[in-house]
TrEMBL record:
Pfam family, one: Response_reg
GO MF terms, alphabetically ordered: DNA binding
Domain (HTH luxR-type) ranges: 150-215
Highest classification ranks of the organism: Bacteria, Bacillati, Actinomycetota, Actinomycetes, Micrococcales
Chain ranges of the Response regulatory domain: 3-132
Any one GO BP annotation for this protein: regulation of DNA-templated transcription
Protein's name in the database: DNA-binding NarL/FixJ family response regulator
Length: 226
């Protein structure tokens, strides 16, 4: 039997998913949790083989809960030892969200799979079995997004955009950057808007981390983005 913990903040969704899984002869739903905190506690108490994890929940979300489960067992990137007594649970993200950043964050946190709720019931059952067997599972739409992202034309920032983003990484505000570079604050904002568009992000912090991921900025020890 594959022991499963269902984590979702909507009680009707939890009940529906649990009921669906219980119709499978080799599945045993050992618990339901409404938050990341509850998931961690129940995982310790019930030792599930697979945790079906939603992403956005009150309190601790699914990515952080996945990351903590991963850290507890000393695993990274969804790589786990063979399933068996004492083996860590595997996390299968099951959510309505298909945002690129959330997909990558969940996988980087240690999730072994990512399925969307809009998929067929057979996809969910097959995904649970595959993840329990140590495989990595991605919904077709998710796999297509990851491939498309990998095939995108490399992002290029202008020297001025790189300079401004570097100062953001050092923790400088827009007014401080304007003073440092002897330009208007509106000019700083315009450059940052162009950076956001190129990096496909919506805030300063994510712009810095995304630029570092793409090696457009060096990783700055101790730097903060405000």
């Amino acid at each position: 039997m594959i022991k499963i913990l269902v984590v979702d903040d909507h009680p009707i969704v939890r009940a529906g998913v649990s009921g669906l899984l219980e119709t499978e002869p080799d599945f045993d739903v050992v618990g339901e949790a409404a938050s990341g905190e509850e998931a961690l506690a129940l995982a310790a108490a019930t030792a599930p083989d697979v945790i079906l994890m939603d992403l956005r929940m009150p309190g601790m979300g699914g990515v952080e809960a996945t990351r903590r489960l991963t850290r507890q067992h000393g695993q990274q990137g969804g790589q786990h030892p063979a399933q068996g007594e004492g083996a860590p649970p595997r996390v299968l993200v099951f959510t309505t969200y298909e945002d690129d950043d959330e997909i990558l964050a969940a996988i980087e946190a240690g999730a072994s799979g990512y399925l969307v709720k809009a998929g067929p019931a057979t996809e969910l059952a097959a995904g649970v079995r595959a993840v329990a067997a140590g495989q990595t599972v991605l919904a077709p739409t998710i796999a297509a997004q990851i491939v498309a992202r990998a095939q995108k034309v490399p992002v290029a920032l202008t020297p001025r955009e790189t300079q401004i983003l570097g100062l953001v990484a050092e923790g400088l505000s827009n007014p401080a950057i304007a003073v440092r570079l002897h330009i208007g604050e509106s000019t700083v904002k315009t450059h940052l808007l162009h950076v956001f568009e190129k990096l496909e992000v919506s805030d300063r912090t994510r712009a810095v981390t995304r630029a570092m991921e793409l090696k457009l900025l060096p990783a700055l020890p101790g730097a903060t983005a405000s």
